[in-house]
Amino acid sequence: MHKVNRALTAIENGIAGFSLIAAVGIAVISIVLRAGFETIIFWSEEAIIYLIITSTFFGAIITLRDNGHVNAIAVLGWLLLTEPFSFDTVTPALKLPLGAVETAVPVAFTLMFIRAIAMLWSTWKHGVQELTAAEVAQLEAEAAGVSAEDIENARRESLATLERQHLRAGGDGSPPGQQDGQAQRGTDGEGGDAR
Q1: In a structure prediction context, what are the per-residue pLDDT tens digits for the chain, which is 195 residues long?
Q2: Is 59 exposed, middle or buried (0-12, 13-18, 19+ CB in 10 A)?
Q3: How far is CA 66 from the centre of its chain?
Q4: What predicted TM-score, i.e. pTM, was given to this entire model?
Q5: Which of 10, 120, 170, 188 counts the most CB atoms within 10 A of its CB?
Q6: What value, to the nearest 5°, has the Cα angle with vertex 71 and ends 20 and 115?
Q7: Could you tell me the sign of the dihedral formed by the alpha carbons of 92, 93, 99, 101, in that order?
């Protein structure tokens, strides 16, 4: 079951991530070409819309995986492809059959269904397992192809950078209002509010 979970996680993250990155990339390239070279990519807007739709549906699977609440019926997604308009209609700029774009819906719902069955099976077999933040990070790191050690090193570097910035700003490492190791005192000298 662990191999299935790892494979599904890689597929889900890969498609959602690729779709979103591709949409952003096309948008940036389109803007640069339009602003800098007065050139238009006529199909860019349509492609961005379809990529965002794909990313949204695969993001829903990730939500389900992380125990979010998503209601979906995979069968209706596949029935959508049996409608005549799905292959009789083509997209305006890309000239793709609408069914090619709609395929993201049933594929995402089917993967969501498989994910839900895998989660139910695991719960039935092993009971409810509460994962710690470190365990979730480890599973996500494995699916993304990085090690948990890399993530921990990046976290430490970020904390060290924040600490250096705080010290450069005049802090001594203590919380704001606690410089020189003493509590900030009011005018009454007792450390309370001045009233």
Answers
A1: 677 777 888 888 888 889 889 988 998 898 899 888 988 888 888 888 888 888 887 887 777 776 655 555 555 666 666 667 667 778 788 888 877 777 777 787 778 778 777 777 777 777 666 777 777 777 777 767 777 777 778 888 888 888 888 888 876 555 554 444 444 444 444 444 444
A2: buried
A3: 11
A4: 0.44
A5: 10
A6: 70
A7: negative
Type of residue numbered 69: H
Cβ–Cβ contacts within 10 Å for residue 32, how many?
11
Q: Which amino acid is at 117?
A: I
What phi and psi, each to the nearest 5 degrees, are found at residue 63?
-60, -45
First to last CA, the chain: 65
The ranges assigned to domains in the chain are 2-127, 130-174
